[in-house]
Design goal:
It is a single chain. The chain is of the alpha/beta class. It is built from nine helices and 15 strands. The strands form two sheets. The chain has an eleven-stranded mixed β-sheet with strand order 1-8-2-3-7-4-6-5-9-10-11, sandwiched between helices. Helix 1 crosses helix 5. It is globular. The two termini are 35 Å apart. 47% of the residues are buried. The structure holds threonylcarbamoyladenylate (TXA) and magnesium ion.
Length: 315
């Protein structure tokens, strides 16, 4: 696999590889995505194979703008308002497909809906414009493991399963997009993410919770996910013997190899940016487990706590 700086030539080449059905990893403002032509069944299937992703977990389709999105899905007033407010950005909308939607049925796991997002990262945007096709892009990690926030993470974990990675530096947000299902009468928050619940609710009113509806839940919301190798112990005020510690706020311990602080200033955006990379760091140590400091439940804290809860889950 090659890691390329996103020059004009590299973007052209990446766009060509996508159009030819190959896999290209690229940066978005949330996490790195593993891209493929969303209209090609073979290309989409190779994404599932490269990640070891179960076929019932559908993918997000990425497009350059709202116009391109409208060729794939039906936008009602709510959908249009949300798209106009937050695209490009870390919001994914689940919408009914249009008739003869060109997206591969494998990408949507055979559902009548399609998840769509317009990313903000300039490299993602340029790539989508150059490719001129809708691009599926799950996070560029083996299924179930931590999401990648640098090109190096992708290279280490996917290796030759992807031919090239565009290097856009570390991701700004560090958490995946917020997924909102607009296919029913009430909007439902399927996955908390980089755009907070409160920000979205200002535009579309209160969001239902996936657990509280009778609609099928987001098939990808597997309880154990984002999982490091080491067990996690949440809401810990400090490490026990043998544990590494992931802190938040004024440091409880001096610096060491077994210690990371998501944000000494207790800043949630900074914590989000650091979460996956710091979990990876501590996961590589000789510790027996990773203890994690309590985090606020508000704002980005909702998504941070969601990821940690899934990472901590043991069957
Ligand atoms: O920030 C992001 O969204 C990143 C970057 C690369 O854009 N992508 C990402 O993709 O997180 P992935 O595949 O790791 O997560 C997709 C989520 C899953 O929870 C999946 O179940 C849900 O979106 N999803 C996709 N299509 C759906 C659909 N038709 N109905 C309900 N949920 C859907
Ligand atoms: Mg993922």
């Amino acid at each position: 696999m090659e890691i390329l700086q996103p020059t004009a030539a590299a973007l052209e080449r990446a766009a060509r590889e996508l159009r030819q059905g190959r896999l290209v990893a690229f940066p978005t403002e949330t996490v790195y995505g593993l891209g493929a032509d969303a209209t090609s069944d073979a290309a989409v299937r190779s994404v599932f194979a490269a990640k070891g992703r179960p076929p019932f977990n559908p993918l997000i389709v990425h497009v350059a703008d709202l116009r391109a999105a409208m060729a794939l899905a039906q936008f009602d007033d709510r959908a249009r308002r949300l798209a106009e407010s937050f695209w490009p950005g870390p919001l994914t909308l689940v919408l009914p497909k249009v008739a003869r939607c060109p997206v591969s049925a494998s990408a949507t796991a055979g559902l009548p809906t399609v998840a769509i997002r317009v990313p903000k990262h300039p490299v993602a945007k340029s790539l989508l414009v150059a490719a001129g096709i809708p691009v599926v892009a799950p996070s560029a990690n083996p299924s179930g493991l931590l999401s990648p926030t640098t090109a190096q993470h992708v290279a280490t974990e996917l290796g030759d399963r992807v031919s090239l990675v565009l290097d856009g530096g570390p991701c700004d947000l560090g958490l995946e997009s917020t997924v909102v299902d607009l296919s029913g009468p009430k909007p439902v928050l399927l996955r908390p993410g980089g755009l907070t619940r409160r920000t979205i609710e200002r535009i579309c009113g209160s969001l239902g919770d996936a657990e509280a509806t009778d609609r099928p839940r987001s098939p990808g919301l597997l309880l154990r996910h984002y999982a490091p190798k080491l067990p996690l112990r949440l809401d810990a005020d400090g490490p026990e013997a043998g544990e590494a510690y992931l802190d938040f706020g004024p440091p409880r311990l001096p610096p060491s190899a077994l210690y990371r602080n998501l944000s000494p200033a207790a800043d949630l955006p900074e914590a989000a940016r650091n979460l996956f990379a710091m979990l990876r760091d501590l996961d590589r140590t000789e510790a027996a487990a990773i203890a994690v400091a309590p985090l606020p439940a508000e704002g980005l804290g909702e998504a941070l706590r969601d990821r940690l809860r899934r990472a901590a889950h043991r069957d």
